[in-house]
């Protein structure tokens, strides 16, 4: 038979057990004290950063006019179309390994081709409606299609740009197509060959600087870089006047980093830039530039002995 432990040994075991329980409680208490009190402010800040989405509201750059009010530089709204392939479950199938619990995503070529084709047709249509006018055999179509296809294929990525500087009509057309696609695939339908899933495509507002007269008075007006900042001429000299002040919106976001409708969202409105009116007159400037170009041409011809 197995000998029973002595009373003294039993007391030792009990004291050890109590010691371990007290030690564990002490560690937990210390951790809670550190997290909630000693470093509470820091961890609350981390939590807020994970739960809140801080979005910039870009200010509209001011316009530039000549002395009679003719527009020499203006700003138009354009859109960046982007996708979240990791959330576009209609474009791939998922399989979980029973042993490792690792999820493997496999592209669905037919679905990916369908969505890429429809988005590409809208991007190249000009107005989001004239899809039949798009030449699907052109290099422009092939290049844009491949860009969209490759971007949507990155099913482990949550942000892939499909196109930039897209006008509002095309943006609305893409949004309508994606909405209808997701509605049709909300439930699986084996008879129609529809698999349950969705496509995640969004847009971000940006601005494009336009010069209606092209290179006219370019040396005076200057230009803006890709980020919208004046880098030459009046665009640079009056940057603080034209640029305005960006605003921001702070709202809750979901696990995918997307904004959640929140009535308590905090919004700081953007302050648009001021317009600039020049003493320059378009008609006089056009005459001056024409004569200067003629003089330059004549001078070059004389130097070459023509």
Round the mean pLDDT to the nearest integer and report it.
Answer: 84
Largest sheet: 5 strands, mixed
Helix content: 40-55%
The global form is: flat
Number of strands: 12
Separation of the first and last Cα atoms: 124 Å
Strand content: 15-25%
Tally the helices: 9
Poorly predicted residue ranges: none
In brief:
The protein is of the alpha+beta class and 306 residues long.
Provide tags for this entry.
306 residues, 42% helix, 3-stranded antiparallel sheet, alpha+beta, 21% strand, 12 strands, 5-stranded mixed sheet
How would the blueprint of this fold be written?
Layout: H1 7-38, H2 40-51, E1 52-57, E2 64-65, E3 71-83, E4 92-96, E5 103-107, H3 109-125, H4 139-153, E6 160-166, H5 168-184, E7 201-210, H6 218-221, E8 223-224, E9 230-232, H7 233-237, H8 239-243, E10 247-252, E11 266-268, E12 276-277, H9 282-303
Parallel strand pairs: 2-12
Antiparallel strand pairs: 1-10, 2-3, 3-6, 3-7, 4-5, 8-9, 10-11
Helix pairs in contact: 3-4, 3-5
What does this protein look like?
The chain is α+β, with helices and mostly antiparallel strands and 306 residues long. 42% of the residues lie in helices and 21% in strands. The chain is built from 9 helices and 12 strands. It has helices spanning 7-38, 40-51, 109-125, 139-153, 168-184, 218-221, 233-237, 239-243, 282-303; strands at residues 52-57, 64-65, 71-83, 92-96, 103-107, 160-166, 201-210, 223-224, 230-232, 247-252, 266-268, 276-277. Strands 2, 3, 6, 7 and 12 form a 5-stranded mixed β-sheet that branches. Strand 8 (223-224) and strand 9 (230-232) form a beta hairpin. Helix 3 packs across helix 4 (139-153) and helix 3 packs antiparallel against helix 5. The longest helix has 32 residues, at 7-38. The protein is flat. The chain starts with 6 loop residues before the first helix and ends with a helix. The mean pLDDT is 84.
